[in-house]
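Appendix B. Worked example

We walk through a single record from start to finish. Start with the input: the chain for EscE/YscE/SsaE family type III secretion system needle protein co-chaperone, Pseudomonas aeruginosa, length 33.
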Amino acid sequence: MMTALETRLSVADGTHAAALRQRLQAALAECRR
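Next comes the structure step. The output line below is what the pipeline stores for this chain.
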């Protein structure tokens, strides 16, 4: 059973991970140019 706080944290974690992945891909694209 997850608490509301745990749920909020995992959601925030997901968006953070997505943003990081986006930045990583952007950086990789920069390197390839």
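Two observations about the output. Residues 21 and 28 are 10 Å apart (CA to CA). The chain has a mean pLDDT of 90.
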